[in-house]
Amino acid sequence: MDYINAFWVGGAICALVQILMEKTKMLPGRIMVMLVCLGALLGALGIYQPFIEFAGAGASVPLLGFGNTLFKGVKEAVDEYGFLGIFLGGLKASAAGISAALIFAYLASIIFQPKMKK
């Protein structure tokens, strides 16, 4: 039953995101950032962890799960290091390569002017 729950929950998340991409003028990068932020927000509210326990990889693999992982890492690092944990937590909780990709993508979005779809 774990595999079935992971399959339908992950599929539902992906289908909803695909609909969002097709029906709005939002750029895919902005949708991905929105998903990561939403995952962190749901983690902060304590909603996402029970969802992961129910759906397993179906909830932890999509970008919502990545946002939740970043939140948990920052929370633990703040408890351990104080203010410095804000900067260390996300890097410690997730792979350094993924965190670097996010940082450089954010810097690129500041330097270059992304345009909305027409």
Automatic annotation (TrEMBL):
Sorted UniProt keywords: Membrane, Transmembrane, Transmembrane helix
Bilayer-crossing regions: 6-21, 33-52, 93-112
Pfam families, alphabetized: SpoVAC_SpoVAEB (PF03862)
InterPro entries, per the entry: Spore_V_AE, SpoVA
Signal peptide region: none
Classification via NCBIfam families: spore_V_AE (TIGR02839)
Entry protein name: Stage V sporulation protein AE
Source taxonomy: Bacteria, Bacillati, Bacillota, Clostridia, Lachnospirales
Gene: spoVAE
